[in-house]
Amino acid sequence: MKKSLMLVLVCMLLLTACGASSNKNNNAASGNTAKAKEITIWAWDPAFNIAALEVAKAEYAKTNPDVKINIVEYAQNDIIQKLNTGLNSGTTKGLPNIVLIEDYRAQGFLQSYKDSFMDLSGSIKGTDFADYKSGPTSLDGKQYGVPFDSGVTGLYVRTDYLEQAGYKLADLQDIDWKQYIEIGKKVKETTGKALITLDPNDLGLIRMMIQSAGSWYLTEDGKTPNISNNEALKQAFEIYKGLTDSNVANVHSDWSQFVAALNSGAVASVPTGNWITPSIMAEASQSGKWGIAPLPTLPGNGDSVHASNLGGSSWYVMNVDGKETAADFMATTFGSNAEMYQKLLTDIGVIGTFKAASSGKAYSQASEFFGGQKTVSDFAAWTEQIPSVNYGIHTYAIEDILIVEMQNYLNGKAIDKVLGDAQAQAESQIK
Amino acid sequence: MKGVGEVKPVRSSLNIRRRNIWTGWSFILLSVVMIFIFYFYPMLQALIMSFQTGTGSNLEFTGLSNYQRLFDDNMFITAVTNTFIYLLVQVPVMILLALFISVLLNDSKLKFKGFFRTAIFLPCVTSLVAYSVVFKYLFAGDGLVNTLLLKLQLIDAPIGWITDPFWAKITIIIAITWRWTGYNMIFYLSALQNIDVSIYEAARIDGASAPRQFFGITVPLLKPIILFTSITSTIGTLQLFDEVMNITKGGPGNATLTISQYIYNLSFKYSADFGYAATVSYSIVIMIVLLSFLQFKVAGDKNG
């Protein structure tokens, strides 16, 4: 009895020991392969980011045929979870060599996990990229991220609806948000279509408006909430209420409904990031009916320009085995290859933020879908005007507070009280 | 001789007992070790973490500050309020509904019993995420529910099932009721099988009406099961996450935010505040302990 028991226990010990040792072997093997030039990259969105990576991979293979590049697609939320749990547990096993991070979240990762990301100052120059990208991608004067997707915004409009209401695309070139609402009322009157579609859970519109005036939820230091005395934010709130009060807004609750509203012709315009272009063009029957105007400005705000940013993301190299190869891959493709950006643009529609690329000829092509407009060169020009702000690390935490206060405001609470309460809450939340 | 004869069996029985204890332990040893490693150790770590603050890996001990923060955190209070609204509205509705259906289905004269039982139990084998996504589309602004109600002329304008704070809560309640009623019904059905038919016969002879039988016989005899289901439902509701995450994402304006989703937001949506997230999860532990204790006191056996 006892002997057999001992046997079982010994077997179990051996088994676990085997498990452990085989693990060790695996690690050693993966460590070796990393040095033997194999790198892994995590990104989301197969039609956009992954497709761009494939182009870069092919480009890199021309000069480095022995490097194996694994591209892994995860949803953005999954990447955030995996990175957070991986980095927080202190083990770098299972983490990729390169990861795509949204600009609003970049500082959160860089500051929360110091030393986990590789300083790329030696391989790429931050000044080669659009200026507003330096805020999210650098920390303490060191360049960590390779700026990528621009997220430059424009006002996409249905030119056919506009014409019915007596306007032309040219009439939208230099307007503010108040005039935009006025045009919307006219459009609604004549066509019955909503001017814009809003998701009560998403304040992207507010983000665009305040960044156009060089302002953010936090002050320049990226830490102090800047809500109650923020003139741009106050104006943005007022415009938002103006949109709902004048009954020109459609309401949607998620991405697929958002895109459906555009493709079905239910709304006459959408102010958003240029990454919406493929989704709009997906409805081929609307070819020639769309145009893109510059973003309206905040009325009476001298700082507000006709350009802003929404979303956008950049590449980060992690401080794990194989980082030299990863950094080299980034530096020779997204970090310097202007020719590759032409291909990214024509094949996938990616508007990068690499300055030297914007003079290429792909950038001056006219788009048939958008009525022959040279949309890309317009976007490239607006990219240069985007005011630089420090997103800090609390964008989404503050936004959740503001979403609630926005509902209160729409229900009649006074604006100063709304922003004051949000300020107080943000201060207690962010410590 | 006599003395030795008395001692010997005692010694050997001691041996047997010791050996039995060892055999017993050796059977469960592995599970015990595993439970300690994968349950108790993380729980302890989470408790330690709940005394730390900071983003990501920059954690430092700050004593009870996280627990103090709970009390002036409006978002936490919103999450707790929402969760308790679900609890107070949904759990009683669901338990009554499950009881009612199970009594109907227990009727010996009912035909196609198996079909009805399966049909009502079926929702709770569906995947949480899959059914949430389906509900999101059913209750969308131009979804099936609104279309039907409009066609039947019960409403004039589409209801904002997901975009209106009040209706969003209702949508969540409808969703979890649909998902879990059949699950509770199964417990009642099996308990009903154990009630002697002769009790009902006697009641009928005495002239007791059907409602009287239900409240006078069925409910009291099912009391232990009702207690069990209400405690498990309470725990389930306090941990509600999938439905809210997938149908409304906590919106509009945190109107459907639950405590579990707040923990998720603190850890992954905001700036990775794991310390405070651990504190919030311990607040759920405390609430579950208190509520279960309360339910035992109110509904449990006096001597139990």
UniProtKB/TrEMBL annotation, chain A:
InterPro entries, per database record: Bact_solute-bd_prot1, SBP
Coiled coil: none
Residues spanning the signal sequence: 1-22
Alphabetic keyword roster: Signal
A Pfam family of this chain: SBP_bac_8
Tagged with keyword Signal: yes
Protein's recorded name: ABC transporter substrate-binding protein
Source species: Paenibacillus donghaensis
UniProtKB/TrEMBL annotation, chain B:
Keywords from the UniProt entry: Cell membrane, Membrane, Transmembrane, Transmembrane helix, Transport
A single cellular component GO annotation: plasma membrane
Membrane topology per record: Multi-pass membrane protein
Keyword Transmembrane on entry: yes
Domain ABC transmembrane type-1, chain residue ranges per copy: 80-295
Family matches, as InterPro entries: ABC_transporter_permease (IPR051393), MetI-like (IPR000515), MetI-like_sf (IPR035906)
Origin: domain of life: Bacteria
Chain segments annotated as transmembrane: 21-41, 84-106, 118-139, 221-241, 274-294
Main location: membrane
Localization of this protein: Cell membrane
One Pfam family, short name: BPD_transp_1
GO biological process: transmembrane transport
Family note: Belongs to the binding-protein-dependent transport system permease family.
PANTHER family listed in its UniProt record: ABC TRANSPORTER PERMEASE PROTEIN, INNER MEMBRANE ABC TRANSPORTER PERMEASE PROTEIN YCJO
Protein name: Lactose ABC transporter permease
Species name: Paenibacillus donghaensis
